[in-house]
């Protein structure tokens, strides 16, 4: 079986396992537990529009999860079927950010590529942040300045309450040659953000606003 689960779908499934663990720990009512099991399984299976029998067999046991150890086993079993983030070459970086001279692609040696929905990194000392997101069969790039907000807030990418920064980027205005600055609060820590993402909706909205 080929990898078929996207990183944010894996995070969503992980979240369902946490909901199940909490449910078993707090609810005593058998009906409540049964509903919870059914809903969790449906939510997981509904992530995949044309699921095969084999994929179904891999994912369906989510409903049997009761405790953290079982969740860990289950997540270990499905992890190999998560699609890793595609390799980003220096050439890709140059193509996406032609004006950023000497910009280096971040080193991904110690990063689990299955845990990335997007690649975000700060260009050392310049106060700039670069974001690469898979888009159809290629990549799309966002860049701008990032300034720590020195407080927690809602991230425009993962929707969680995290340490955020103002990501200010320029987009082309409707009149040729004009630019509009747009600011969005996003997680300062892109790795943390990636672990929080359970849907790509907000990221797609952000791209639509900034592209
Ligand atoms: Zn975030």
TrEMBL record:
CDD domains, per database record = FusC_FusB (cd16342)
Q: Where are the transmembrane segments?
A: none
All copies of domain Elongation factor G-binding protein C-terminal treble-clef zinc-finger, residue ranges:
99-202
**What's a Gene Ontology MF term here?**
translation elongation factor activity
Ranges for domain Elongation factor G-binding protein N-terminal come to 4-86
Keywords (A to Z) from UniProt? Elongation factor, Protein biosynthesis
Q: What is this protein called?
A: Elongation factor G-binding protein
User: Which organism encodes this protein?
Assistant: Peribacillus simplex
Output the lineage of the source organism.
Bacteria, Bacillati, Bacillota, Bacilli, Bacillales
